[in-house]
Amino acid sequence: QVQLVESGGGLVQAGGSLRLSCTASGRTFSHFAMGWFRQAPGKEREFVAGVSGTGDTTYYASSVKGRFTISTISRDNAKNTVYLQMSSLRPEDMAVYYCAARIYEGATMSIMGYDYWGQGTQVTVSS
To answer: DSSP string of 26-93?
Structure first.
């Protein structure tokens, strides 16, 4: 069993930055690929970013990489923690952000590929 606890959400102005953290407990953290997802009111949960167990490979949704909001996923296996650094936030980034763990070393963008989920942390972006 793996327990995931997110933190770092909050209220930020458009154009601002936030760093989300997710700390895991229960099993060997480096064996798990990790992902961040988000769910806005009335919308389905969607993939944001993923990272392999070693941290060598990362994946991003097109909506958060490059054009507008800039997001970077990273992990510190010594601290059992994965991070999501977000900058240039826009109101459309407002959602509950969830951390997820996958019992394989390689990450995936599929929501069905993850086995454990945190409770989520709210990100609110004011315009």
So the answer is: SS-GGGSEEEEEEE-TTS--EEEEEE-TTS--EEE-GGGSSSSSEEEEEEETTTTEEEEEEES--GGG
